[in-house]
Protein backbone atom coordinates (compact mmCIF):
# COMPACT_ATOMS: atom_id res chain seq x y z
CA UNK A 1 0.00 0.00 0.00
CA UNK A 2 1.46 3.39 -1.02
CA UNK A 3 1.91 6.33 1.36
CA UNK A 4 -0.76 8.30 -0.49
CA UNK A 5 -3.26 5.42 -0.20
CA UNK A 6 -2.59 5.07 3.51
CA UNK A 7 -3.06 8.80 4.08
CA UNK A 8 -6.30 9.06 2.15
CA UNK A 9 -7.84 6.45 4.49
CA UNK A 10 -6.54 7.95 7.75
CA UNK A 11 -8.67 10.17 9.98
CA UNK A 12 -5.63 12.35 10.71
CA UNK A 13 -5.71 13.37 7.02
CA UNK A 14 -9.06 12.50 5.37
CA UNK A 15 -11.38 15.09 7.05
CA UNK A 16 -8.93 17.89 6.28
CA UNK A 17 -8.58 16.61 2.71
CA UNK A 18 -12.37 16.59 2.20
CA UNK A 19 -12.86 19.99 3.83
CA UNK A 20 -10.23 21.72 1.71
CA UNK A 21 -11.56 20.07 -1.45
CA UNK A 22 -15.07 21.32 -0.74
CA UNK A 23 -13.77 24.83 -0.12
CA UNK A 24 -11.81 24.86 -3.38
CA UNK A 25 -14.86 23.47 -5.21
CA UNK A 26 -17.10 26.23 -3.85
CA UNK A 27 -14.59 28.97 -4.65
CA UNK A 28 -14.42 27.89 -8.28
CA UNK A 29 -18.08 27.08 -8.74
CA UNK A 30 -19.06 30.53 -7.52
CA UNK A 31 -16.31 32.52 -9.24
CA UNK A 32 -16.66 30.78 -12.61
CA UNK A 33 -20.47 30.88 -12.58
CA UNK A 34 -20.17 34.64 -12.05
CA UNK A 35 -17.45 35.20 -14.69
CA UNK A 36 -19.12 32.99 -17.31
CA UNK A 37 -22.43 34.82 -16.85
CA UNK A 38 -20.92 38.30 -17.08
CA UNK A 39 -18.57 37.55 -20.02
CA UNK A 40 -21.15 35.69 -22.10
CA UNK A 41 -24.37 37.49 -21.11
CA UNK A 42 -23.45 41.06 -20.09
CA UNK A 43 -20.41 42.31 -22.04
CA UNK A 44 -19.65 42.16 -25.76
CA UNK A 45 -16.12 43.59 -25.80
CA UNK A 46 -12.84 41.68 -25.45
CA UNK A 47 -11.30 44.54 -23.46
CA UNK A 48 -14.28 44.81 -21.08
CA UNK A 49 -14.35 41.04 -20.63
CA UNK A 50 -10.61 40.91 -19.89
CA UNK A 51 -10.93 43.72 -17.36
CA UNK A 52 -13.86 42.12 -15.54
CA UNK A 53 -12.03 38.79 -15.40
CA UNK A 54 -8.95 40.63 -14.08
CA UNK A 55 -11.00 42.52 -11.47
CA UNK A 56 -12.62 39.29 -10.28
CA UNK A 57 -9.19 37.68 -9.89
CA UNK A 58 -7.83 40.73 -8.07
CA UNK A 59 -10.82 40.95 -5.71
CA UNK A 60 -10.41 37.31 -4.71
CA UNK A 61 -6.65 37.45 -3.98
CA UNK A 62 -6.53 40.92 -2.35
CA UNK A 63 -7.40 39.52 1.14
CA UNK A 64 -4.37 37.23 0.96
CA UNK A 65 -2.15 40.30 0.65
CA UNK A 66 -3.94 42.19 3.43
CA UNK A 67 -4.64 39.48 6.02
CA UNK A 68 -2.21 36.60 5.52
CA UNK A 69 0.10 37.81 8.32
CA UNK A 70 -2.74 37.75 10.83
CA UNK A 71 -3.96 34.41 9.46
CA UNK A 72 -0.50 32.88 9.89
CA UNK A 73 -0.15 34.16 13.46
CA UNK A 74 -3.61 32.88 14.34
CA UNK A 75 -2.91 29.44 12.89
CA UNK A 76 0.36 29.08 14.84
CA UNK A 77 -1.05 30.48 18.10
CA UNK A 78 -4.45 28.76 18.20
CA UNK A 79 -5.81 25.27 17.60
CA UNK A 80 -5.83 24.86 13.82
CA UNK A 81 -8.83 22.51 13.82
CA UNK A 82 -10.89 25.06 15.75
CA UNK A 83 -10.04 27.81 13.28
CA UNK A 84 -11.11 25.54 10.41
CA UNK A 85 -14.53 25.12 12.05
CA UNK A 86 -14.98 28.87 12.52
CA UNK A 87 -13.96 29.58 8.94
CA UNK A 88 -16.34 26.97 7.51
CA UNK A 89 -19.18 28.41 9.59
CA UNK A 90 -18.56 31.83 8.02
CA UNK A 91 -18.60 30.26 4.56
CA UNK A 92 -22.30 29.50 4.93
CA UNK A 93 -23.18 33.18 5.38
CA UNK A 94 -20.85 34.25 2.57
CA UNK A 95 -22.49 31.86 0.14
CA UNK A 96 -25.97 33.05 1.08
CA UNK A 97 -24.90 36.54 -0.07
CA UNK A 98 -23.20 35.19 -3.19
CA UNK A 99 -26.18 32.99 -4.02
CA UNK A 100 -28.48 36.02 -3.75
CA UNK A 101 -26.28 37.86 -6.26
CA UNK A 102 -26.41 34.93 -8.68
CA UNK A 103 -30.21 34.70 -8.38
CA UNK A 104 -30.63 38.43 -9.00
CA UNK A 105 -28.39 38.13 -12.07
CA UNK A 106 -30.46 35.19 -13.31
CA UNK A 107 -33.61 37.31 -12.98
CA UNK A 108 -31.94 40.28 -14.69
CA UNK A 109 -32.52 42.49 -11.64
CA UNK A 110 -30.17 45.48 -11.33
CA UNK A 111 -27.25 43.55 -12.82
CA UNK A 112 -24.79 46.43 -12.83
CA UNK A 113 -25.89 48.14 -9.63
CA UNK A 114 -26.79 45.25 -7.30
CA UNK A 115 -26.22 41.69 -8.50
CA UNK A 116 -22.62 42.13 -9.72
CA UNK A 117 -21.62 44.15 -6.59
CA UNK A 118 -23.15 41.44 -4.37
CA UNK A 119 -21.25 38.72 -6.23
CA UNK A 120 -17.97 40.65 -6.01
CA UNK A 121 -18.57 41.24 -2.28
CA UNK A 122 -19.08 37.51 -1.74
CA UNK A 123 -16.00 36.76 -3.85
CA UNK A 124 -13.94 39.10 -1.66
CA UNK A 125 -15.33 37.41 1.46
CA UNK A 126 -14.42 34.00 0.06
CA UNK A 127 -10.93 35.38 -0.44
CA UNK A 128 -10.90 36.23 3.28
CA UNK A 129 -12.17 32.71 4.03
CA UNK A 130 -9.37 31.17 1.96
CA UNK A 131 -6.78 33.51 3.48
CA UNK A 132 -7.41 32.10 6.95
CA UNK A 133 -7.79 28.51 5.74
CA UNK A 134 -4.76 28.50 3.43
CA UNK A 135 -1.93 28.47 6.00
CA UNK A 136 -3.65 25.76 8.01
CA UNK A 137 -4.11 23.20 5.23
CA UNK A 138 -0.33 23.01 4.76
CA UNK A 139 0.90 23.82 8.28
CA UNK A 140 -1.24 21.13 9.88
CA UNK A 141 0.41 18.40 7.77
CA UNK A 142 3.76 18.20 9.66
CA UNK A 143 1.75 18.12 12.89
CA UNK A 144 -0.42 15.15 11.88
CA UNK A 145 1.90 13.32 9.47
CA UNK A 146 5.30 11.64 9.77
CA UNK A 147 8.22 13.44 8.12
CA UNK A 148 8.31 10.95 5.24
CA UNK A 149 4.59 11.49 4.64
CA UNK A 150 4.72 15.29 4.29
CA UNK A 151 5.62 15.40 0.58
CA UNK A 152 2.93 12.84 -0.25
CA UNK A 153 0.42 14.77 1.88
CA UNK A 154 1.36 18.04 0.19
CA UNK A 155 0.96 16.42 -3.23
CA UNK A 156 -2.45 15.04 -2.28
CA UNK A 157 -3.59 18.43 -0.99
CA UNK A 158 -2.43 20.08 -4.22
CA UNK A 159 -3.97 17.36 -6.38
CA UNK A 160 -7.20 17.48 -4.38
CA UNK A 161 -7.33 21.24 -4.71
CA UNK A 162 -7.03 21.12 -8.46
CA UNK A 163 -9.46 18.26 -8.83
CA UNK A 164 -11.90 20.43 -6.88
CA UNK A 165 -11.11 23.32 -9.20
CA UNK A 166 -11.87 20.87 -12.00
CA UNK A 167 -15.22 19.84 -10.55
CA UNK A 168 -16.26 23.39 -9.66
CA UNK A 169 -15.33 24.62 -13.13
CA UNK A 170 -17.25 21.81 -14.86
CA UNK A 171 -20.36 22.47 -12.82
CA UNK A 172 -20.13 26.24 -13.33
CA UNK A 173 -19.89 25.80 -17.09
CA UNK A 174 -22.78 23.39 -17.43
CA UNK A 175 -25.46 24.54 -14.99
CA UNK A 176 -27.41 27.77 -14.87
CA UNK A 177 -26.79 30.50 -12.33
CA UNK A 178 -29.98 29.61 -10.42
CA UNK A 179 -28.69 26.08 -9.71
CA UNK A 180 -25.24 27.48 -8.94
CA UNK A 181 -26.80 29.76 -6.31
CA UNK A 182 -28.32 26.74 -4.55
CA UNK A 183 -25.23 24.56 -4.96
CA UNK A 184 -22.78 26.97 -3.29
CA UNK A 185 -24.92 27.09 -0.15
CA UNK A 186 -25.32 23.29 0.00
CA UNK A 187 -21.57 22.71 -0.43
CA UNK A 188 -20.83 25.22 2.32
CA UNK A 189 -23.09 23.24 4.67
CA UNK A 190 -21.35 19.95 3.80
CA UNK A 191 -17.95 21.57 4.39
CA UNK A 192 -19.11 22.74 7.80
CA UNK A 193 -19.96 19.12 8.71
CA UNK A 194 -16.67 17.62 7.45
CA UNK A 195 -14.68 20.25 9.37
CA UNK A 196 -16.09 18.87 12.64
CA UNK A 197 -14.02 15.70 12.16
CA UNK A 198 -10.58 17.30 11.72
CA UNK A 199 -8.44 16.13 14.72
CA UNK A 200 -7.22 18.79 17.17
CA UNK A 201 -3.98 20.56 16.26
CA UNK A 202 -2.96 22.75 19.22
CA UNK A 203 -0.14 25.32 18.91
CA UNK A 204 3.41 23.97 18.93
CA UNK A 205 5.83 25.93 21.14
CA UNK A 206 5.24 29.11 23.10
CA UNK A 207 2.03 31.06 22.44
CA UNK A 208 2.80 34.66 21.47
CA UNK A 209 0.38 37.63 21.39
CA UNK A 210 -1.25 38.45 18.06
CA UNK A 211 -0.20 41.60 16.18
CA UNK A 212 -3.30 43.14 14.59
CA UNK A 213 -1.33 45.83 12.74
CA UNK A 214 -1.42 44.16 9.33
CA UNK A 215 1.28 46.32 7.74
CA UNK A 216 3.76 45.81 10.56
CA UNK A 217 2.96 42.14 11.00
CA UNK A 218 3.19 41.53 7.25
CA UNK A 219 6.60 43.18 7.07
CA UNK A 220 7.88 41.21 10.07
CA UNK A 221 6.42 37.99 8.74
CA UNK A 222 8.11 38.29 5.36
CA UNK A 223 11.41 39.29 7.02
CA UNK A 224 11.29 36.25 9.28
CA UNK A 225 11.36 33.93 6.24
CA UNK A 226 14.67 35.29 4.97
CA UNK A 227 16.83 33.32 7.41
CA UNK A 228 16.64 30.22 5.17
CA UNK A 229 17.65 31.12 1.62
CA UNK A 230 15.95 28.04 0.21
CA UNK A 231 12.60 29.05 1.68
CA UNK A 232 12.99 32.61 0.41
CA UNK A 233 13.86 31.46 -3.11
CA UNK A 234 10.95 28.99 -3.10
CA UNK A 235 8.54 31.80 -2.15
CA UNK A 236 9.79 34.04 -4.96
CA UNK A 237 9.58 31.24 -7.54
CA UNK A 238 6.08 30.22 -6.42
CA UNK A 239 4.91 33.85 -6.53
CA UNK A 240 6.11 34.42 -10.09
CA UNK A 241 4.53 31.12 -11.11
CA UNK A 242 1.13 32.15 -9.72
CA UNK A 243 1.38 35.57 -11.35
CA UNK A 244 1.79 33.75 -14.66
CA UNK A 245 -1.14 31.42 -13.90
CA UNK A 246 -3.32 34.41 -12.97
CA UNK A 247 -2.69 35.97 -16.37
CA UNK A 248 -3.65 32.67 -18.02
CA UNK A 249 -6.86 32.35 -15.98
CA UNK A 250 -7.83 35.91 -16.91
CA UNK A 251 -7.23 35.12 -20.59
CA UNK A 252 -8.95 31.75 -20.94
CA UNK A 253 -12.63 32.82 -21.05
CA UNK A 254 -12.20 35.87 -23.38
CA UNK A 255 -9.87 33.75 -25.57
CA UNK A 256 -12.43 30.96 -25.86
CA UNK A 257 -15.19 33.42 -26.74
CA UNK A 258 -13.40 35.84 -29.06
CA UNK A 259 -10.53 33.84 -30.65
CA UNK A 260 -11.94 30.31 -30.82
CA UNK A 261 -15.57 31.49 -31.01
CA UNK A 262 -16.56 28.82 -28.50
CA UNK A 263 -19.26 28.62 -25.83
CA UNK A 264 -18.85 28.96 -22.07
CA UNK A 265 -18.83 25.16 -21.83
CA UNK A 266 -15.66 25.16 -23.93
CA UNK A 267 -14.17 27.88 -21.71
CA UNK A 268 -15.03 25.62 -18.77
CA UNK A 269 -13.34 22.72 -20.57
CA UNK A 270 -10.13 24.77 -20.85
CA UNK A 271 -10.06 25.36 -17.11
CA UNK A 272 -10.89 21.70 -16.52
CA UNK A 273 -7.96 20.52 -18.66
CA UNK A 274 -5.67 22.92 -16.84
CA UNK A 275 -6.83 21.64 -13.44
CA UNK A 276 -6.41 17.99 -14.47
CA UNK A 277 -2.92 18.73 -15.72
CA UNK A 278 -1.79 20.43 -12.51
CA UNK A 279 -3.20 17.51 -10.50
CA UNK A 280 -1.29 15.04 -12.69
CA UNK A 281 1.90 17.06 -12.30
CA UNK A 282 1.41 17.33 -8.54
CA UNK A 283 1.22 13.56 -8.08
CA UNK A 284 3.79 12.56 -10.71
CA UNK A 285 6.55 14.76 -9.26
CA UNK A 286 6.23 12.91 -5.95
CA UNK A 287 6.84 9.64 -7.82
CA UNK A 288 9.87 11.09 -9.61
CA UNK A 289 11.41 12.47 -6.42
CA UNK A 290 10.51 9.34 -4.40
CA UNK A 291 9.45 11.38 -1.38
CA UNK A 292 12.57 13.58 -1.31
CA UNK A 293 11.96 17.34 -1.09
CA UNK A 294 14.03 18.78 -3.95
CA UNK A 295 13.92 21.43 -6.69
CA UNK A 296 15.75 19.07 -9.04
CA UNK A 297 13.07 19.13 -11.76
CA UNK A 298 11.70 22.64 -11.19
CA UNK A 299 13.76 24.67 -13.71
CA UNK A 300 13.21 22.28 -16.62
CA UNK A 301 9.51 21.92 -15.74
CA UNK A 302 8.73 25.64 -16.00
CA UNK A 303 10.83 25.98 -19.19
CA UNK A 304 8.70 23.17 -20.64
CA UNK A 305 5.64 25.15 -19.56
CA UNK A 306 6.86 28.13 -21.60
CA UNK A 307 7.47 25.91 -24.62
CA UNK A 308 3.93 24.51 -24.44
CA UNK A 309 2.59 28.08 -24.20
CA UNK A 310 4.35 29.03 -27.44
CA UNK A 311 2.83 25.98 -29.14
CA UNK A 312 -0.60 26.87 -27.69
CA UNK A 313 -0.35 30.41 -29.12
CA UNK A 314 0.63 29.07 -32.53
CA UNK A 315 -2.40 26.77 -32.66
CA UNK A 316 -4.77 29.55 -31.55
CA UNK A 317 -3.33 31.92 -34.18
CA UNK A 318 -4.04 29.35 -36.91
CA UNK A 319 -7.52 28.54 -35.64
CA UNK A 320 -10.36 28.93 -38.16
CA UNK A 321 -13.42 30.04 -36.21
CA UNK A 322 -16.93 28.96 -37.13
CA UNK A 323 -19.68 31.50 -37.80
CA UNK A 324 -21.81 30.27 -34.90
CA UNK A 325 -20.60 29.91 -31.32
CA UNK A 326 -19.27 26.34 -31.02
CA UNK A 327 -20.59 24.00 -28.35
CA UNK A 328 -18.34 21.27 -26.93
CA UNK A 329 -19.08 18.55 -29.57
CA UNK A 330 -18.56 21.04 -32.42
CA UNK A 331 -15.36 22.30 -30.83
CA UNK A 332 -13.98 18.79 -30.34
CA UNK A 333 -14.71 18.01 -34.01
CA UNK A 334 -12.43 20.87 -35.09
CA UNK A 335 -9.21 19.40 -36.61
CA UNK A 336 -6.96 21.48 -34.33
CA UNK A 337 -8.90 20.81 -31.11
CA UNK A 338 -7.09 17.61 -29.98
CA UNK A 339 -3.61 19.10 -30.31
CA UNK A 340 -4.81 22.35 -28.70
CA UNK A 341 -6.09 20.47 -25.64
CA UNK A 342 -2.98 18.29 -25.43
CA UNK A 343 -0.81 21.41 -25.50
CA UNK A 344 -2.92 22.97 -22.75
CA UNK A 345 -2.53 19.77 -20.74
CA UNK A 346 1.24 19.98 -21.19
CA UNK A 347 1.25 23.55 -19.85
CA UNK A 348 -0.57 22.43 -16.72
CA UNK A 349 1.35 19.20 -16.05
CA UNK A 350 4.70 20.97 -16.25
CA UNK A 351 3.36 23.73 -14.00
CA UNK A 352 2.24 21.23 -11.37
CA UNK A 353 5.63 19.53 -11.45
CA UNK A 354 7.29 22.90 -10.91
CA UNK A 355 5.31 24.18 -7.95
CA UNK A 356 4.62 21.19 -5.64
CA UNK A 357 8.22 20.58 -4.46
CA UNK A 358 8.53 24.30 -3.72
CA UNK A 359 5.54 24.16 -1.38
CA UNK A 360 7.16 21.22 0.38
CA UNK A 361 10.22 23.40 1.02
CA UNK A 362 8.02 25.79 2.98
CA UNK A 363 6.85 23.14 5.44
CA UNK A 364 10.03 21.05 5.65
CA UNK A 365 12.85 23.53 6.28
CA UNK A 366 11.26 25.57 9.10
CA UNK A 367 10.32 24.73 12.68
CA UNK A 368 6.87 23.22 13.08
CA UNK A 369 5.90 26.18 15.28
CA UNK A 370 6.62 28.48 12.30
CA UNK A 371 5.04 26.57 9.43
CA UNK A 372 1.69 28.40 9.32
CA UNK A 373 3.40 31.78 9.39
CA UNK A 374 5.80 30.68 6.66
CA UNK A 375 2.84 29.67 4.48
CA UNK A 376 1.18 32.98 5.34
CA UNK A 377 4.31 34.89 4.30
CA UNK A 378 4.25 32.93 1.06
CA UNK A 379 0.59 33.84 0.60
CA UNK A 380 1.33 37.55 1.06
CA UNK A 381 4.02 37.55 -1.61
CA UNK A 382 1.96 35.21 -3.84
CA UNK A 383 -1.15 37.37 -3.63
CA UNK A 384 0.78 40.55 -4.36
CA UNK A 385 2.25 38.85 -7.44
CA UNK A 386 -1.20 37.60 -8.49
CA UNK A 387 -2.72 41.07 -8.19
CA UNK A 388 0.14 42.38 -10.33
CA UNK A 389 -0.49 39.54 -12.79
CA UNK A 390 -4.21 40.36 -13.03
CA UNK A 391 -3.48 44.07 -13.55
CA UNK A 392 -0.76 43.22 -16.08
CA UNK A 393 -3.28 41.17 -18.08
CA UNK A 394 -5.69 44.12 -18.04
CA UNK A 395 -2.97 46.54 -19.16
CA UNK A 396 -1.92 44.25 -22.02
CA UNK A 397 -5.51 44.31 -23.24
CA UNK A 398 -5.82 48.06 -22.67
CA UNK A 399 -2.81 48.84 -24.87
CA UNK A 400 -4.39 46.83 -27.66
CA UNK A 401 -2.38 43.60 -27.56
CA UNK A 402 -4.68 40.81 -28.76
CA UNK A 403 -5.41 38.15 -26.16
CA UNK A 404 -3.83 35.41 -28.28
CA UNK A 405 -0.55 37.36 -28.56
CA UNK A 406 -0.51 37.87 -24.80
CA UNK A 407 0.29 34.15 -24.56
CA UNK A 408 3.76 34.85 -25.96
CA UNK A 409 4.37 37.42 -23.21
CA UNK A 410 3.37 34.82 -20.63
CA UNK A 411 5.72 32.27 -22.22
CA UNK A 412 8.63 34.72 -21.96
CA UNK A 413 7.78 35.31 -18.29
CA UNK A 414 8.42 31.60 -17.59
CA UNK A 415 12.16 32.33 -17.76
CA UNK A 416 11.91 34.17 -14.42
CA UNK A 417 10.68 31.25 -12.26
CA UNK A 418 13.07 28.98 -14.15
CA UNK A 419 15.99 31.16 -13.04
CA UNK A 420 14.85 31.23 -9.41
CA UNK A 421 14.27 27.48 -9.51
CA UNK A 422 17.84 27.02 -10.74
CA UNK A 423 19.23 29.27 -7.98
CA UNK A 424 17.16 27.33 -5.44
CA UNK A 425 18.57 24.05 -6.75
CA UNK A 426 22.11 25.40 -6.32
CA UNK A 427 21.29 26.51 -2.75
CA UNK A 428 19.82 23.07 -2.05
CA UNK A 429 22.98 21.32 -3.25
CA UNK A 430 25.19 23.74 -1.31
CA UNK A 431 23.26 22.95 1.90
CA UNK A 432 23.76 19.22 1.36
CA UNK A 433 27.53 19.53 0.91
CA UNK A 434 27.99 22.04 3.74
TrEMBL record:
Domain of life: Bacteria
Cell membrane among keywords: yes
Keywords of this entry: Cell membrane, Membrane, Transmembrane, Transmembrane helix, Transport
Pfam families linked: MFS_1 (PF07690)
Subcellular location: Cell membrane
Major localisation: membrane
Segments crossing the lipid bilayer: 12-30, 50-71, 92-112, 118-138, 150-171, 177-198, 231-254, 266-288, 300-320, 340-362, 383-401, 407-425
Membrane-topology descriptor: Multi-pass membrane protein
Designated name of the protein: MFS transporter
Organism of this sequence: Novosphingobium rhizovicinum
Amino acid sequence: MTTSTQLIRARRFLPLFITQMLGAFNDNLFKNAMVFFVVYSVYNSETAEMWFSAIASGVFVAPFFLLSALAGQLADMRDKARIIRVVKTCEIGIMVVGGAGLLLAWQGVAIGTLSIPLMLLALFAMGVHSTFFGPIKYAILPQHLDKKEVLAGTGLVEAGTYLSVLAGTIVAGWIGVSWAALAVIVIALIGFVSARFVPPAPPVGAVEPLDFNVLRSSSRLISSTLHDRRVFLAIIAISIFWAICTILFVQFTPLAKNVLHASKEVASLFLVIFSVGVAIGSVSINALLKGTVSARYSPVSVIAMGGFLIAFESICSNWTAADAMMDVPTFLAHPLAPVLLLTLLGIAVSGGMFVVPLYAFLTTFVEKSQTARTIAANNIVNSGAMVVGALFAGVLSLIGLAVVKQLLVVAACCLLPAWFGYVLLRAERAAVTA
